[in-house]
Amino acid sequence: MNDISSMASDIKARTSFELNSVKEKISINRVKNQKFNDTLKSTIIEEVDNKKKPVDEKLMDVCTEMESLFVAKMLKEMRKTVHKNELLHGGFAEEIFEDMLYDKYALDISKKANLGLAHQLYNEMSKI
C-alpha cells in the first residue's frame, strides 16, 4: 500500500512539474506572439503610409543603381572563382565585354528582382 501511495505521489509531482513547464512555455509563446503581432501591425501601417506618399522616381533610380553596384561587385567576386583554361580564353576584349555584360546583369537583377536594398535605401533617403 505504501508503494502505491508513494508511486501516486511521484506521478502527481511529475505531472504538476510538467504542467507548470507547459504553462510557462505557453506564456512565453503568448509573449512572443504578441511581439510578432505588434511588429506585423507596425510594418503594415508603415507600408500603408509609404504607399500614400508619392514615389520620387529620380531617388528610386539612384537607389536601384546603388543596389546594382553592390550586385555587380558580388557577381565579379563570384566570377573570380571560375577558372578559365588557355584554350577558351578570349583575351582582353573578352574581359572588357564580360565586365560590361555583368554590369548589365547586375542592373537587370536590381530592377527586376526584389532584393530589398534599393527599397531600404529609398526609405531612409526619403526621410531626409
Number of domains: 2
Question: What percentage of amino acids are in beta strands?
Answer: under 5%
Q: Outline, from the CA principal axes?
A: elongated
What's the order of the H and E elements? Answer: HHHH
Secondary structural class: mainly alpha
Radius of gyration: 29 Å
Q: Could you estimate the helical fraction of the residues in percent? A: over 70%
Low-confidence stretches: none
The overall pLDDT average reads 81
The beta-strand count equals 0
Q: State the helix count.
A: 4
Distance between the termini: 79 Å
Structure description:
This protein is mainly alpha-helical. It has two domains: 1-53; 54-128, no CATH class. The protein has helices at 2-52, 57-80, 92-112, 117-127. The longest helix is centred in the N-terminal third of the chain and has 51 residues, at 2-52. The mean pLDDT is 81.
Topology, pairings included?
Elements: H1 2-52, H2 57-80, H3 92-112, H4 117-127
Helix pairs in contact: 2-3, 2-4
Q: Notable features of this structure?
A:
4 helices, 84% helix, 128 residues, mainly alpha, 2 domains
Summarize the structure.
This protein is mainly α and about 130 residues long. The chain is built from 4 helices and no strands. Helix content is about 85%, strand content about 0%.
